[in-house]
Amino acid sequence: LPSHYHKSNCRCLISSETQLLPYHSLKTHFDMVEWKLAVTAAVLTISSSATPTCQAHPFLPSNIGSTINSFYKENPFKGAFLTCSIKGCSADMVAQFIASKREHREEEDRRMQELEDHPFHTMVKKATRGGELSSELEGRHKFNIDWSRSLVFILYGGLYQGMAQEFIYNRVLPILGTGTDMKTVARKVAVDMGFISPLICIPTAYIIKGFLIGNTFVQSLANYVDDVVNKGLVFKNWSIFVPVQCITFSIIPEHFRVSFVACISFFWMIILSSILSG
Q1: Most distant CA pair in the chain, distance
Q2: Burial letters for 245-261: b for 16+ Cβ neighbours within 10 Å, e otherwise?
Q3: What separation in angstroms does the CA of 87 have from each of 169, 217, 257, 268, 269?
Q4: Which residues contact 89 (CB under 8 A, 6 or more apart)?
Q5: Which of 12, 161, 217, 225 is most solvent-facing, going by the fewest CB within 10 Å?
C-alpha cells in the first residue's frame, strides 16, 4: 500500500467484501481511489479558476462612503465649494418659500378684514369661510424665486462658508494647536466665535447682498450693525454655533469639518436669509 495510507484509514475505506480480495486487487482498488481524488481536485481547481472574481464597482452603495471620503480628502476646496453653495441656495429657497407663505397669509387676512368691514359682511363672510371666494383667495398664492437673492447665498455659501472656511479651519486655526484636547478646542472656538464669525463671516453676507442690490460698502455694514443691535443677530449665531464648533474641532475629521458645519448651518442660513430679507 502507498505509504500515506494509514491502517485506520484503510479500514474506513475498505468494505467487508474488499478485505477478502487478494493483494493485487486491493492495490487496484486504492489506485482507483487515488485517481478519483485527483480528478475531483482537478475539477474543483478548474471550476474555481473559471469563476469570475466579484469586484465591487467604486460607485456601488458598498463603496459610496470610501468614494466620498477620498473625494473630500483629495479635493478639499472643490468639495467645500460644492457642498456649501448647494446648501446656501437650498436654505435661501426654503426661507423664501416660508416668507412667501407668510406674506400670502397676511394679505389674505387683510382682505378678509376688508370684507368683514363691508356693509354686507355677514353674507360675504359666509361666502369666504366655506365658499368659492375663500378658495379663490387661497389659490392665488404663487411662489416666485428671487434668483438674485439666491445668487447671494450661492456665492456666500461656496466662496466664504466653503472655500474660505476650509482655509481658516485647516490652515489658519491649527496655529492654535493641532490636538483635540479641551484647551485647544476652547481656543479655536473662542477665536472663531469672538472674531471670525461677527467680524468676517456674517458681514460678508451683507456686503455680497449690498453689492448685488446696489448698496455701498458703508450701507451694507450699517444694515449689519442695525440687525446686530435690533435683531440679536450675533447672539442667535452663538446659540447655534458655539456647541457645534466644540464638536467640529474635537470629533470631526479635518476634511469633513466644513461639510459638517454646512449641514448644521443649513438652519442658520434660513434664519440669516429671513433676517436679510427683512
Answers
A1: 126
A2: beebbbebebbbbbbbb
A3: 19, 26, 15, 11, 8
A4: 150, 153, 154, 157
A5: 12
Query: Please, what is the angle between helix 217-231 and helix 233-250, to 10°?
Result: 90
What are the tens digits of pLDDT across the range 240-266? 899 999 999 999 999 899 989 988 888
Question: How far is it, in rounded angstroms, from Cα 224 to Cα 255?
Answer: 31
* Cα separation, 210 vs 152, whole angstroms: 9
Q: Does the global pTM surpass 0.70? A: no
Determine the residue type at 207.
Answer: I
**What gap in Å lies between CA 254 and CA 276, rounded to an integer?**
31
Q: How far apart are the first and last CA of the chain?
A: 99
Residues 6 or more apart whose CB falls under 8 angstroms from that of 170 comprise 76, 254, 255, 257
Distances (CA, A) of 111 to 133, 144, 224: 11, 21, 34
Cell numbers of 22, please?
487478494
C-alpha–C-alpha distance, residues 226 and 206, integer Å? 11
Quick one: which of 147, 124, 149, 119 has its CA closest to 136? 124
CA distances from 68 to 59, 72, 106, 255 (A): 10, 6, 45, 11
Computed over its alpha carbons, how large is the radius of gyration of the chain?
37
Query: Hey, what's the torsion of the CAs at 184, 186, 187, 191, to 10 degrees?
Result: 140
Cβ 177 vs Cβ 199: under 8 Å:
no
- Exposure string (b/e) for 113-122, b if CB count within 10 Å is 16 or more? eebeeeeeee
